Each structure stands twice: as structure tokens, then as C-alpha cells.
């Protein structure tokens, strides 16, 4: 299969490869810029971006806003000509603030999921930033397109279709994930068909397929199914440029297929992660008293939560895995070594061409 560039509005991306946004602090400016420099689309995770700042404990909201702007500025310094996006969860309590910070920081594109970003165009009005909702079904894609077209006179610049094999918080029920959820390859043509009526003068809305993709052959498979590009998250964790600690990356290297498990997050969503002693203690009913210092996600009820998800993910990012855990896609166990992003991209491109 020939590797060709593709467009999101007036943005050209050289390779059909999007690096998924991974929080907290797993995909920051370092990883996003490295992917962008290789011709892919690099993505900064917009969750708790201020956790490394000195003022985080004093004024968390301000630290997160400034963290977003700083990460975008750093990414642009590292990759002056690359395409840089941010991933912002609808469930964030300060969603509007973080979106506006992304606009101020001149993100090329905002990816938004963990809820339906029905009012996202209102928050970015007057800016050139491109918008890409993240969905898990044709119904959700159609709903967003109709709402945006009716209320704002526009449609998404791209749509990310995240299948059931992705890492992190998932758009499926635990019951669906434990039985037989629809395969990504089946969902792709359904979403492409559902959003076909919303094509613009620039052409059809690009569909970016995500969830469980690891090789160039995987990318070729979803492109053949009708996707315009593929999003990979876990594949970029075990890289030199990934912004996580070495200990976090080593979790991927030590994992076996049996270590990739489904969990119930304190925010009420199912997620996929690497089993470790922290998650085993949670499963056994041990809980850590939650004094909410973060107030980060709308669905979270601290009094009922067995642990603080923000604290657990920040601890993991820093390498303190005894007090946290690593989110991961279903194929994370396939990581064998820590290598440069360019080496990963070269291997993916070769796999696409050979498919």
C-alpha cells in the first residue's frame, strides 16, 4: 500500500499516523514534537498539564492553563513545521478554560472525547484551530455533526473513531467490553457512511481509526476499511521521547498479555490498564482515603471513590507505580525495547508499504 499525505482542512499531514493523547503527562511536548517531526500528527494530552509546575499546589486551575500554553509553545519550538494537536476530555471540570488555553497556545487541532463535545465550536469561535470529536459509534458521530451544523453552521474537521481495544478510559460499558464489542474494522465503514452527508467543499470528513493498532499492517488494514488515518497511543510509550518516566515505560516492557486488564475507574468509566500491585490492592477492596485536591473530572465522586485517579496517574507518570498504574491498549505487552520515535515511525511506514 502506498503511503500518502492527507488533509484536515488546510492542514497537511505527511503520514497517515496520529499519536494518541495520553495523560497524565505521558504525551507532552517532547513526544508530540518528535512524532510531528517525522511527518505524523503529534498530540499533547490536556489533562492536568500543570502538575509539574511549582504553582500547581497553590493554584491548580491557573497552573493547568499555563501548562497547556507552555507545552504548546515548547512543542512548536521543537517542531516548527509539524502538526501539533491537543486532546481535551469533555469530562474535565475546567473544560472551557483548557480549550481556550489550547486556542491561545495556537494548537493546530483539538481532539475531544470522554463525553460529547457538543458545544466545542462555541468555545473556539473565531480561531483557525481544527476540531476533531472522538466517538465510539456511528450514532455519536452523526449526533455531533447534526448539532454542529444546525447550531454553528460547520461540521467537524475530522472524527476519531475509537474502538474497544484502546487504552485509558473507554466509550463502552464494562459489559460490552467483556462480551463481544463491535470490531473496529466493522465500525469504520459504518461511521464513514453515517457522516457522508456532512461532506464539505473540501471533501468527506476524515475518519481517524484508533484502538489496538500496533503495526504498519494494522494501519493498512484500517485504511483499507475506509479510514483516512490511524491513531496509535500505546505504541509510542516505549520510546526515548515519550514524556513518562523510565519506570512507567518499563511497565510496558514487563507486561504480558494477561497483565492487560479492564478496570472500573473512579470516574465511572471502564478503562484498560496494566495490572500491578496497586490495582490488585484496589481489587481486593483496599481503598485510599480521598481528599480531593484536584477536582478534575465531573463524573468523579470523591467520597465514593476507592482512590484518586488524578493522583494515581501523576504518581505513575513520575515512576511511583506502587501508588499508581499505567493505562495501556490491548497490545501494550508487545513492547520489547525503548527506541527512538523515528525508528517506530520508519517501521510503521515500512509495514504499511508492505501490506
Account of the 3D structure:
With about 350 residues, this protein is of the alpha/beta class. The chain has two domains: about 5-245 and about 335-355, Aldolase class I (TIM Barrel), CATH 3.20.20.70; about 245-325, no CATH class. It contains twelve helices and 13 strands. It has helices spanning about 30-35, 60-80, 95-105, 120-125, 140-150, 175-180, 185-195, 215-225, 245-255, 275-285, 310-315, 340-355, and strands at about 5-10, 10-15, 15-20, 40-45, 85-90, 110-115, 130-135, 160, 170, 205-210, 230, 260-265, 270-275. The strands form three sheets. It has an eight-stranded parallel beta sheet. A three-stranded antiparallel beta sheet has the order 9-13-12, with no helix packed on it. The longest helix has 19 residues, at about 60-80. The termini are close together.
**How many helices does DSSP assign?**
12
In terms of DSSP E residues, the strand content is: 15-25%
Quote the distance from N terminus to C terminus: 6 Å
- State the total count of DSSP E strands: 13
How much helix, percentage-wise, in residues? 25-40%
Question: What top-tier CATH class of the largest domain fits best?
Answer: Alpha Beta
Structural class: alpha/beta
Rg result? 19 Å
Q: Report the average pLDDT across residues.
A: 93
Low-confidence stretches: none
Q: Quick one: biggest sheet?
A: 8 strands, parallel
What is the overall silhouette? globular
**Secondary-structure element order, N to C:** EEEHEHEHEHEHEEHHEHEHEEHHH
As for the CATH topology of the largest domain, it is: TIM Barrel
Write the CATH architecture name of the largest domain: Alpha-Beta Barrel
